[in-house]
Amino acid sequence: MKLSSALLAALLGLATAHGHHEGQHVPKLVGGRRFLGDMRMRQAMVANVPGVPKQPLGPARRQGSLRSRQIDDNTDGQCGAKFGSCAPGYCCSSEGWCGKTPVYCNAPDCQINYGSGCDGNKKPAGEDTFSVPRPKLGTTLYGGAGIYECVKVGDIALTFDDGPYLYTSDLLDKLKSYGAKATFFITGNNIGKGMINDPSTIYPAIIRRMHAEGHQIASHTWSHENASQMTNTQFTNQMVWNEIALNSILGFFPTYMRPPYSICGKNCENILSTLGYHTIYFDLDTAGYLNDTPKLIQNSKDIWDQAMKTSDPSKDSFLQIEHDIHTTIVHNLTDYILTSLFSNGYRSVTVGECLGDPPANWYRAGPSKSLVPTSVPQSTPKSSTSVSIRTTVPTRSTIPLPSTSTTTSRTTVSIRTTVSTRSTIPFPTTATAGRTTTIQTTALPTTSTSQATRTTISLRPTGTGGQAKTEPAGTG
């Protein structure tokens, strides 16, 4: 595969960033992300999100001296490294102005070091998880340079960052209709959505549904801050506060995480190891977050197609990244990816599955010691089956009909059953799965006396990613 200049730059940055880890190889990467050190992603992440306006250059009232603003307790003045902090309870926007509205306070743009009112500085309600036991179970790497690739061939682990959000329920509907599984790297309080464990929001129910339908839940920190710009205490809070919120919803919290912007230096790596986290990156990125329009999304489809074209499920696998805060990814790209994934012979699995890590290791019990799931809940995919009966007379006989006549003519009933129009692809439908259909066919009359032929076909969807089976009735 020919690498673009952007991808080569990413690989070079990756090698530099992780050069202190002896024996670490540069992972294969498919896609166009410049995911190390490129903070322009911050603006791309919130672009096109309804109801989240861009950060202003400053408040409408810019006149007056800096002194007068400071005398006014810096409630509408400048803030940041050069100007200091805003008044208590105020937020410092990314452009360095104090205010209290969402455009000032939304994470991750609000500068948490200079605005106590920033969403990223608000701790969620719930039992503190900091002191819970954190044994490192299994053989999957904890902390360190992180994980970029699946270990089981034929698997594609679809992952979605930054949610839950307005479109996440629609995404869950799609995944269910295809019988697909995904991993959600959840952010606790970003882009103005509020805290995920706030019972007045839709998010607790969405997160419970994720788990109930067999998806894996992982952490993407509390408010999507850049780990390289935080103190050790701040980054620890980012991890623990997300644990508190998720534990209050589920009764347990994850052992898997992905660093925002895929930036995690040595201090970050050490903290994640201490807290008992698997650090998950990716090796396939369609850059959907940069192509969030019906026209531009074709760029992401082209990246995906190139990965499929140059891979073989008998020896390859992918750990793929998307973002469920973008409507075109959810409502357009996801269908394209799932259809292609199955038609190319891959399995749609969680990150834990593609790494061969047992489900019992994916979560930790909270302070109340709720039972940690030891298996993946299975959801039955919706499926539909079309059956066509074609009768031809005469043909070469494959089903001889009993006859009492001495005539030499024979009548043949040929039954051809068609199940699904796509090879091995489970397709969306609202039909009820597990239905048995009985079809009775009668041979066309001939000069001989013959009995009616009754054929029963039992149609049973195979579950996830499979083609419906056709069996004679009575075989179980």
TrEMBL record:
N-terminal signal peptide: 1-19
Keywords: Carbohydrate metabolism, Chitin-binding, Cobalt, Disulfide bond, Hydrolase, Metal-binding, Signal
Residue span, NodB homology domain: 154-349
Disulfide topology: C86-C98, C91-C105
CDD domains associated with the record: CE4_ClCDA_like (cd10951), ChtBD1 (cd00035)
Chain ranges of the Chitin-binding type-1 domain: 76-120
Renumbered residue ranges of the record's region Disordered: 50-71, 371-411, 446-476
Essential cofactor(s): Co(2+)
Gene Ontology MF terms: chitin binding; hydrolase activity, acting on carbon-nitrogen (but not peptide) bonds; metal ion binding
Pfam families membership: Polysacc_deac_1
Biased segments, Polar residues type: 371-393
Residue ranges with Low complexity bias: 394-411, 446-458
UniProt keyword Aminoacyl-tRNA synthetase present: no
Record bears the keyword Ion transport: no
One Gene Ontology term from the biological process aspect of the record: carbohydrate metabolic process
Stored InterPro entries: Chitin-bd_1, Chitin-binding_1_CS, Endochitinase-like_sf, Glyco_hydro/deAcase_b/a-brl, NODB_dom
Protein name: Chitin deacetylase
Gene source species: Lasiosphaeris hirsuta
